[in-house]
Every structure is written in structure tokens, then in C-alpha cells.
Amino acid sequence: MKRQDFYFDLPETLIAQTPAKERTGSRLLVIEPNGGVSDKQFPDLLDYIQPNDCLIFNNTKVIPARLFGHKHSGGKVEFLVERILDDQRVLTHIRSSNAPKPGTKIRIEDQIEVEVLGRDDALFEVAFELPDGETALSLIEACGHMPLPPYIERADGEEDKSRYQTVYSEKPGAVAAPTAGLHFDEIMLDKIRQKGTQIGFVTLHVGAGTFKPVQVDDISEHRMHSEVIEVLPETVELIHSTKQKGGRVFAIGTTSVRSLESAATFNDGVLTAYQGETDIFITPGYDFKVVDVLLTNFHLPESTLIMLVSALAGYEATMNAYRHAVEEKYRFFSYGDAMLVHPAKKAKS
């Protein structure tokens, strides 16, 4: 398929710049099993889950990965930390008038000194000069800014520290939020448990590459960025138990899909525990091995994520749903509304 097949016209006015007043206050567009769409409110999700089902969330925690500093020469520098390597070193994108060379010292937020060690393609390896008792992560958390996506055209504020983070976030490492999870509050999670529906977790540390556009016309030629994932044995056991009881696996967000499907793909289609990296690219024609239903937000035109949704729901159903969402003025992207995606028969294994 071609990248242009996944284009749709999106008015800028539909791009959510701020979160809904309440986490569960968003709308929910449902792609029904027959391919039709229904307009709902997010709490209506409870009507679609059953006691034998399980919901799998991504428990990554967004770090305040955007840092501002200056070279000793005075030039301004902006960092977007991509990955923490150890207590002292990180991989980071750097924006400045001239790319810093190895050995360059940079002062961040007038508090922290870092040294550029080297460069690999678009990423720089940087070492923090650490005061006693500090780590790179602790310093980033002390003075960094929340890395709001590029389509949110404002500086981060105090509210973003909590709202651009899921209520169940646990493991620091993401530079973008697993946004489908932003709709859940503790009350909603309790109601899910009260139905008898089980909840499990995976970890995928979302990288800045999630916003990288597809630049080739033939999508089969696109190469995904690599991200760190972890699927623990207890999550595998929960999913196997769910399947044995005839229940469905709801993936909360495309990152949960990519984690589960990667762990299964790496073991000849059988889900097993896995810790490592993945660059899985799910497009129409993919045979889903684990995931039955997806909860997600609305994604960018021509993005890898709308391609993933199309792989589950079917191309026509997905594009029809997106056109409907535009017509009905749903809010798009990270702080926007949600979509519940049931599989097309031809897309479900």
C-alpha cells in the first residue's frame, strides 16, 4: 500500500491543545464488529468489556525529557532525551545553530554541566557531570520540561506534569505518553475491576521516533525506530488464562499492541515473556497473534499508527471512521478523544 492511501484532511482546529477537564470526559468513537461506527462517551467503554476479558496497559512513565541550555560560547541548545543509558549517560536529540562536536561542554538550566561524547546518526551521546548522590535521571526530573508533542503549539505548563502522564505510570523512560491511557482515572480502573475484568501491564518506553513521518511512498519500505519493551511472565499468564476462558485481550494503546505482538512474533507466534527492543511495523495484512480489541486515540494522517489501526479494523472501516470523526468534530491526537477498535473478520487471526 501507499503512504498516500492513509491521508485524510484534518482541520487544525480539531487538534487538541489541552486535555479535557476530567480524564474520563472525552468522547469515544467505536468501530463496531460490523465495521460501522457509534458515537459514545468514554465511560461507555464499560459496556464493551466482559468479566472474562483482560485489559493490558503500558505502565511506562514519561520523563521531563526536554532540557534547555547554552554552550560556553553562548549559543542556545535544546535537548530531547531519547533514552537513558545508565546513571550518567543518555542518548539525546540536540537542536542548536551548529551541531556540537565531541568534547563540547554545555550548561543546562544554569545548573548542570554535560559533555557531548559522540554522535550516531541523529542522536548524541551525552554524559552528565554528577553531584554526589545524583543520577542523570534525577537531574532530568529536577529541571526538565514535559516533552509535549510537536503538534501542541504551546509551552508545557504545571498541569502537564500530571495530565501528560497516566495515573498508573510506574517505570520511567518514555519521552511521549501512551496517550490512550490518559483517559483512565482511578475510579474508572476500579469500575473495570468491579466487573471482574482483569488488568495487566507491559512496558514500552515511547521514543521521539513515534512522531517520525513515513517518508517513502511504498509503506513496505519504511523502517521503524527501535524502542525498549518488557512483557513480564505474569502478563503472559494472564493473557493465556483469558484466552482459555474465551475472553478477549483489549490492548490499551498502540504501544501495548506493539509490545504484545512483538513478544509473540519473536517466538513463532506464541506469546512468551520478553525483554529487549522492537521495531515491529504493523500494517494491513498483519495476522494478529494476541490482541483482540484496541483502545487508542486518533492519529496523524499517513502515520504508522493509523496503519496499525487499519491492520486490525480493516482499511475501509478505519478511513470511514476517521472521516466520521472529522465530520463530528472529535478532538485529535494526544490530548484528544478515544477510539475503540473491533477487528475486521479478515484482519483477525
3D structure, described in words:
- 19% of the residues lie in helices and 27% in strands.
- The protein has 349 residues and is of the alpha/beta class.
- It has two domains: 3-62 and 160-341, QueA-like (3-Layer(aba) Sandwich), CATH 3.40.1780.10; 66-143, Thrombin, subunit H, CATH 2.40.10.
- The radius of gyration is 20 Å and the shape is globular.
- Helix 6 packs across helix 7.
- It is built from seven helices and 17 strands.
- The chain has helices spanning 136-143, 160-163, 186-194, 233-244, 254-265, 304-313, 315-327; strands at residues 27-31, 37-41, 54-58, 60-62, 66-71, 76-84, 89-96, 105-108, 112-120, 123-128, 171-174, 198-204, 227-231, 249-252, 274-278, 293-297, 338-341.
- The chain has a nine-stranded mixed β-sheet with strand order 2-1-17-16-14-3-12-13-15. A six-stranded antiparallel barrel has the order 5-6-7-10-9-8. The chain has a two-stranded parallel ribbon with strand order 4-11.
Query: What is the strand arrangement across the widest sheet?
Result: 2-1-17-16-14-3-12-13-15
Q: Helix amount, in percent?
A: 10-25%
Instruction: Give the CATH superfamily of the largest domain.
Output: QueA-like
The CATH architecture category of the largest domain equals 3-Layer(aba) Sandwich
Q: Structural class, from helix and strand content?
A: alpha/beta
Give me the number of helical elements.
7
Order of helices and strands: EEEEEEEEEEHHEHEEHEHEEHHE
Low-pLDDT segments, ≥5 res: none
